[in-house]
Amino acid sequence: MALIVNGIPPANNALNEVSQNCSAELSVEKNRSFKSADEDGANFKLILKNTSSSRNSYVIKTSMASSPCSNKNASARSNKKGSSIKNSNLNISFNSNESRGTGKKQSSNLISIEAGQTKEFTITATAPNGTPYNTWGCIKVEAVSDNCKTTSDEIILSVFVPDPSEN
User: Fold this and answer.
1) Is the pTM of this model over 0.85?
2) Fold (CATH) for 24-166
3) Which end of the chain has fewer beta carbons closer than 10 Å to its terminal beta carbon, N or C?
4) What is the pLDDT of residue 21?
């Protein structure tokens, strides 16, 4: 026999509470998820919003996307130059704009955010020596709730590796 309080069975109430404490929205500033990696790399400013009902910590995970990607608008241009459909491997780094009273930027991939608040961080992608030119590398960025160990949101960043002699 289940105890029903306020018309909500306990299982539904617990499920609702868990989902409210794990949710987040991950976005790229100005929706610019496509960039070229010049000699300094491609820098993406990401915004993580805690949409849960309480303070939460999120682990930011990055990996190369498993499926090929490109900027659909630019792919016709780049394919004329022999662009490969296969993803190029990229070096990926993380920087948070949080300072912990030290004045230094945080390089840890753990971000704590109060309910309803946002934090910005930067993902930088660089092409290692020997990366073929006129190719794309795509990065999957995930915000994983530290409370629930589940992915709260994810986004794909597309990086074009241009031929520097064509600049």
Assistant:
1) no
2) Immunoglobulin-like (2.60.40)
3) N
4) 77
